[in-house]
Amino acid sequence: MHHLGSSRTSNQRDHALLTPDSFVRAPLPGMSGATAIVHAAPPLGAAFTQYTADFLAGGSLGPAPAQRFIYVLDGEIELKVSRKQHTLAQDDFAYIPAGLPHRVRSARVARAAIIEKPFHALKGSEQPQVVIGSERSLEAQPLLGDDALRVRTLLPSSPSYDFAVNTMTYEPGASLPLVESHVMEHGLLMLEGGGIYRLGDCWYPVKAGDFIWMAPYCPQWFGALGKTATRYLIYKDWNRHPQP
User: Would you say 75 and 108 are in contact if contact means Cβ atoms under 8 Å apart?
Assistant: First the structure.
């Protein structure tokens, strides 16, 4: 329906829904053989940046301006950090602390979700360390005892880390147990399935490939629809006092 100007994409005061039909790709500084779809960034009102990196064979990212989290969506990514080489396949992830030199490249066509955020040190807390893992190998925990809604925690909960990244998996018909409204902002990438997301006073059909940004205190709720499970990757800032 592009020729009629139709899209599910919506940008509101406290949230945004960005759908693949409206994505625009462009390289970021230092990228080679790769392009970025920037989903959330300070011009939107976000305190972090999240983008999807599309790699050609031999493509690479530029240096990170902040701490960086990588989640592989398709293909394989090669990460060299602290003199060690890691191959990250689909659903593998890595966290690299701010200021730590590293190289991210792909020998073949690949896609990855990238989150970058300025680091806010906490007095008396140890510095964060490199984290390498696989989402599929982590134990899923029921949310508030609901086995139909499971959470996998990708980063340590230690105060050393000032943001969290989780995956949430909903069986068909499962939903959040309440309408949430809180100080943390979110970046959410739909990985599988779909359903209905309430954002503020708006209700949106969402599906795999969509991205959602939620500002602090945006009322939010999700219910999964369809015959297969729904899964998304979600970022939130935490472990820091909200006082600037």
Answer: yes
If you average pLDDT over residues 48-72, what whole number do you get? 97
Angstrom CA distances, 224 to 41, 142, 203, 228, stand at 27, 16, 13, 9
Tokens found for residue 101:
């030199």
Distance of CA 38 to the CA centre of its chain: 12
Res 20 pLDDT > 90: yes
% of the chain at pLDDT higher than 70:
98
Residue 137 backbone phi and psi in degrees, to 5: -90, -10
Give pLDDT, residue 243: 80
| Residue 62 and residue 31 in contact, taking contact as beta carbons nearer than 8 Å | yes
Tell me the CB-side half-sphere exposure of residue 196, using CA atoms within 13 A: 10
Rounded average pLDDT over 116-123: 96
- DSSP summary character for residue 171: -
